[in-house]
Amino acid sequence: MAVSEKHCYYCFDVLAAYFEGRDPILPEFDNSEYPLFVTWNLKKHGSYRLRGCIGNFDPMPLHTGLRQYALTSALQDRRFNPITYKELPHLSCGISLLTNFEKAKDYLDWEIGLHGIWIEFENDDGRRRTATYLPDVIPEQNWDQIEAIDSLLRKGGFRGRITPAVRESIRLKRYQSSKLEITYEEYAAYLEKNDVEQFPSVLKSKK
Description:
Blueprint: H1 5-20, E1 33-44, E2 47-61, H2 62-75, E3 91-103, E4 116-122, E5 128-133, H3 137-141, H4 145-155, H5 164-168, E6 171-183, H6 184-195, H7 200-204
Helix pairs in contact: 1-2, 1-6
């Protein structure tokens, strides 16, 4: 399945409904199961910056999965303060449905721009750690493969010296994703087209 605008509209409305104390719109897409991530970006000084991104690698029914992670990524990403209602008109929402998981031969057995990567490794204290980057993150940062791997180790909590032996000890899975991102303006236009009277508080901030 390719991700669609309706997945993004639904996540936007789940967050708006949370702030407004109402039920979100009913999903207008099927309830297939996928691993998924929801990403919120905030427009500031003319460009969008990450505001929250959380997901799950276990396949979930889309109706419950998108509803859960629309809120979790907006309100519980420990890297950021929770998103506030006043930020809503300045957000974009990206949905990634993950597919084609494969065990890599080694830590370099993946392609920038095509694959997301998930790694498992042992930290300095011997504890098992994991970390991931979605497929679009690495080209956005203009990293090569080594830079991406080293950054992912740091993201996962590795604090020691990163040597070739450390990289070679990594267990890596690669995967692909179908991703789409929409802005708040596109979400508001969708509501206006379908049932403007049902969502006056959301649309009020648009005017």
